[in-house]
């Protein structure tokens, strides 16, 4: 497991006092707002204040005191794993990328990417020798995520209903 975890993406500056609007990748905006130290463009920032704004979060970083400084911040936001809320039975995207996908005891391929298109359910992308495909990460499809064995066990019947192959 890596020490830095992707936790969000900067959307834009907000207001004139240096706040930034963020799209959190955490389970909830509240979880994101608990993080007190962030990494943006290989620089460390201390969070002075953060608050939810619908599905977004507004954050004020130490030493970012005006709109121009906030506008210079772009891209992905990372946090050290130790700074993240610990949730038993939960995992972060970084934890499962590269896991084997197993269906009926057969290796289906490797989980290569996870994307959320603004819906409740993430989309998992699989690189497979039999053709790359994607599927929604539904509870009916995913039977088990085994962090120790680095594998995800899938329900074949449910996977067949939702799997989309690349053309």
In short:
This protein has 167 residues and is mainly beta. The protein is 13% helix and 47% strand. The chain is elongated and about 55 Å long.
What is the makeup of the main sheet?
7 strands, mixed
Q: Give the CATH superfamily of the largest domain.
A: RimM
Regions with pLDDT < 50 over 5+ consecutive residues?
Answer: none
Strand order of the largest sheet: 11-12-7-8-9-10-13
CATH class of the largest domain: Mainly Beta
- The oligomerization state is single chain
β-strand amount: over 45%
Distance between the termini: 32 Å
| Radius of gyration, whole Å | 18 Å
| Average pLDDT, all residues | 92
Structural class: mainly beta
Q: How many independent structural domains?
A: 2
Can you describe what's shown?
This protein has 167 residues and is mostly beta strands. It has two domains: 4-82, Elongation Factor Tu (Ef-tu), domain 3 (Beta Barrel), CATH 2.40.30; 94-165, SH3 type barrels (Roll), CATH 2.30.30.240. The chain is 13% helix and 47% strand. The protein has four helices and 13 strands. It has helices at residues 29-33, 67-71, 93-96, 156-162, and strands spanning 4-14, 19-24, 37-40, 43-53, 56-61, 75-80, 100-103, 106-115, 123-127, 133-136, 142-146, 151-154, 164-165. The strands form two sheets. A seven-stranded mixed sheet has the order 11-12-7-8-9-10-13. Strands 1-2-5-4-3-6 form a six-stranded antiparallel barrel. A hairpin with a 2-residue loop joins strand 7 (100-103) and strand 8 (106-115). The longest helix has 7 residues, at 156-162. It starts with a strand and ends with a strand. The mean pLDDT is 92.
């Amino acid at each position: 497991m890596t020490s830095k975890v992707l936790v969000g993406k900067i959307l834009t500056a907000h207001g004139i006092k240096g706040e930034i609007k963020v799209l959190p990748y955490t389970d909830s905006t509240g979880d994101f707002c608990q993080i007190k130290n962030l990494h943006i463009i290989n620089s460390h920032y201390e969070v002075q204040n953060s608050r939810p704004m619908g599905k977004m979060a507004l954050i004020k970083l130490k030493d970012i005191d005006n709109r121009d400084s906030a506008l210079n911040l772009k891209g992905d936001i990372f946090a050290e794993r130790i700074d993240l809320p610990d949730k038993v039975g939960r995992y972060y995207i970084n934890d499962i990328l590269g896991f084997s996908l197993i269906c009926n005891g057969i290796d289906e391929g490797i989980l290569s990417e996870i994307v959320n298109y603004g819906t409740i359910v993430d989309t998992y992308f699989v690189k497979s020798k039999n053709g790359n495909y994607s599927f929604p990460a539904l509870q009916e499809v995913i039977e088990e995520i085994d962090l120790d064995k680095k594998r995800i066990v899938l329900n074949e019947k449910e996977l067949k209903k939702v799997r989309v192959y690349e053309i």
